[in-house]
Write a structure and sequence with these properties.
Radius of gyration of chain A: 18 Å
Order of helices and strands of chain A: HHHEHHEHEHEEHEHEHHH
CATH topology of one domain in chain A: Rossmann fold
CATH superfamily of one domain in chain A: Phosphopantoate/pantothenate synthetase
Largest sheet of chain A: 5 strands, parallel
Shape of chain A: globular
CATH architecture of one domain in chain A: 3-Layer(aba) Sandwich
Oligomer: homodimer
Helix content of chain A: 40-55%
Number of helices of chain A: 12
Largest interface: A-B, 85 and 85 residues
Strand order of the largest sheet of chain A: 2-1-5-6-7
Chain lengths: ~280, ~280
């Protein structure tokens, strides 16, 4: 089954599409070994969340959209897995909120930044930052702290999906308003964020875009209301509660079911055969 | 940091060693892309379990050891990730309980079976089954159901670590006594097992071996008591409760923390830098 053959109303649509894209990302040299492992970690948390967008995550997406619309210089930070998983969605969000896109990797190499930038341009991005690498995030070593001076360094609002905790904290220390997308509510990055969206990237990015389009129509008053109505600690607590109260051993085979393991396994996941 | 430099009393020893070995498994062509994703899924569940062996998992390991000692023809089924993650531990367990080792893959190819068998022999295995491929597990298609006639097909007790749900059920339907090692108590395989060990493979296999050595000394009466004392449903319920009651946002960075994601990420996990 190719990606276009997966019906959008399939209950496990996000999971199947995600698996497809991440494997293609490996073929294209965009996704790393570490990225595949991280993909698996994400699958488990999304399974525990019920593979759905919680109301609290939807409120976060709405607040994020409002924050981006009200920003002076918003930047979407894109790493290898974000580029592999949601290239079209990222480009659409950037257009909807008039944000820059910047490739920003844990270990910056020009080669990989270029490959990811090419991939994003193939998916419609006009300008992709990250190659100038003439700025820095203070407090991190060089390879991890390199950014563009007129990109993330100059941004007032940054969207950092799938970000590591050290960088999320360093960006926070720079005074950025941070929007984090992450399925583990216990991670340091969502806990550092001004607006943590605890949701699968594949669902969250288009959701922020949809809210941005609606809020652009509704105007600045509605945008400020969306921000005021959002409570980050409450959203994290609700995501955690959803994970704790999730049902195990459900009748439908979960993302992590039949495959999860003492550490790993051979990919013997019956549900995902269609995606291979 | 190489594996031997990781102190065994490091609180995240199993996690760091696991990461090391699985990446080496990729270099050796033993671990697949799917195996890396499965590794990540396992990391999340192990993090939620608290990266420790629960008392109920220890009781399961003890019952498993007793079952293996009392078996007529026990077989340890080994897939690519098991071979990558616990080759020495698997060989030691086979010796302790006088079991066969059989390479058994979700998608059987002679090439991969041979590579994995070589790897196990490099780690001290004398005989490794799986290449004869002259038997079958009824109810599965050919590539997934192929086993050795004098191995898994003839076994009365099978240890299937990191097994997929379909195969666990098919083995169960053959009347095998099944011992499953899996960190997700909601997976079909542990729920199908006679003895589900909900624990990280890296901790579970040596733990079964240690119990086997003690129970071999203690004799058949103690072995039968260990089996009688174990309740599979209760062990699954306790593992699930441990996951639900686990603490999020703890002060120490979790395995899934700072990296887990809407689906995946670039490997930007500060805790794992030492393992790269």
């Amino acid at each position: 089954m190719t990606e276009t053959e997966i019906p959008e109303d399939h209950p496990r649509y996000a999971s199947l599409v995600t698996r497809h894209r991440i494997e293609a990302g490996v073929e294209n040299g965009i996704t790393s070994k570490q990225g595949l492992i991280a993909q698996g970690r994400g699958e488990s948390f999304d399974y525990l969340l019920g593979e759905r967008t919680l109301p609290s995550a939807d409120a976060a997406a709405r607040a994020a959209a409002a924050t981006l619309l009200l920003a002076d210089h918003p930047v979407l930070s894109v790493n290898g897995n974000v580029a592999a998983l949601a290239p079209d969605e990222t480009v659409e969000l950037a257009e909807a909120v008039d944000a820059d896109i910047e490739v920003n990797l844990f270990n910056h190499t020009d080669e990989r930044v270029r490959r990811i930038a090419d991939h994003l341009r193939d998916h419609g991005a006009e300008e992709v930052k990250g190659l100038a690498a003439d700025g820095e995030i203070p407090g991190l070593d060089h390879a991890r702290g390199t950014v563009d001076a007129d990109g993330i360094e100059a941004a007032d609002v940054v969207v950092v999906p799938l970000e590591d905790g050290d960088r999320a904290e360093a960006l926070d220390a720079m005074g950025k308003t941070e929007i984090v997308i992450d399925v583990n509510p216990g991670s340091r990055s969502p806990r550092t964020a001004d607006i943590p969206i605890v949701d699968n990237l594949i669902r969250a990015v288009p959701n922020v875009t949809a809210h941005a389009r609606a809020l652009a129509e509704a105007g600045p008053g509605a945008q400020r209301d969306a921000i005021d109505a959002f409570d980050a600690d409450d959203a994290l607590a609700k995501a955690e509660a959803a994970i704790r109260e999730g049902s195990f051993g459900a009748e439908t085979e979960p993302a992590g079911g039949g495959v999860s393991d003492g550490a790993a396994q051979n990919g013997e996941n019956p549900v995902d055969e269609s995606a291979r």
